[in-house]
């Protein structure tokens, strides 16, 4: 089953703040122009860290929706709900401090979400196309955050 076009386009658009963060980290003129016109929240590393925190919390909501599809009997729904709040809690407790530690914790958070995605897909609660979307998106986000760490 292919990834629905709307989901793919929105996911790709969701990469833009991560890519923008890399671009402003690698280009001093772009950084200065963005800083002057957009402000400090919209340049590297801040745009990546704030947006990454929001998206990690958003992914908790997505997983909650998957958990809602689980049968109530047998405990799978309860386990799913419990697992679904982990990314938001991770973002809340672990993303802070300096930009390097915050970016590293976001990387670990996104990799953790991918494991949760896999588990929900294994349970048959995620759409059949879900991992075909999430694996490349996660790799792209982790790469962007990783470039932010080393630049």
List keywords for this structure.
mainly alpha; 8 helices; 77% helix; transmembrane; DUF3429; DUF3429 domain-containing protein; transmembrane helix
Note down, in words, how this protein is organized.
It comes from Salipiger marinus. Keywords: Membrane, Transmembrane, Transmembrane helix. InterPro entries: DUF3429. With 151 residues, the chain is mainly alpha-helical. It has one domain (5-150). The protein is built from 8 helices and no strands. α2 crosses α3 (28-37), α4 runs antiparallel to α6 and α4 (46-67) packs parallel to α7 (99-122).
Quick description:
It contains eight helices and no strands. By secondary structure, it is mostly helical.
Largest sheet: none
> On the 0-100 scale, what is the average pLDDT?
96
The total count of strands amounts to 0
Helix content: over 70%
Layout of strands and helices, then pairs:
Blueprint: H1 5-14, H2 16-26, H3 28-37, H4 46-67, H5 76-84, H6 86-94, H7 99-122, H8 130-150
């Amino acid at each position: 089953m292919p990834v629905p076009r709307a989901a793919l386009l929105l996911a790709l658009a969701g990469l833009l703040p991560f890519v923008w963060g890399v671009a402003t980290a690698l280009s001093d003129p772009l950084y200065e122009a963005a800083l002057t016109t957009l402000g400090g929240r919209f340049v590297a590393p801040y745009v990546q860290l704030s947006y990454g925190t929001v998206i990690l919390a958003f992914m908790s909501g997505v997983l909650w929706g998957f958990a809602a599809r689980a049968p109530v009997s047998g405990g799978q729904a309860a386990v799913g709900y419990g697992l679904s709040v982990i990314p938001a809690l991770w973002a809340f407790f672990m993303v802070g401090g300096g930009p390097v530690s915050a970016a590293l914790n976001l990387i670990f958070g996104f990799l953790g979400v991918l494991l949760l995605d896999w588990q929900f897909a294994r349970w048959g609660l995620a759409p059949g196309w879900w991992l075909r979307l999430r694996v490349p998106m996660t790799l792209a986000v982790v790469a962007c955050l990783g470039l932010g760490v080393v630049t």
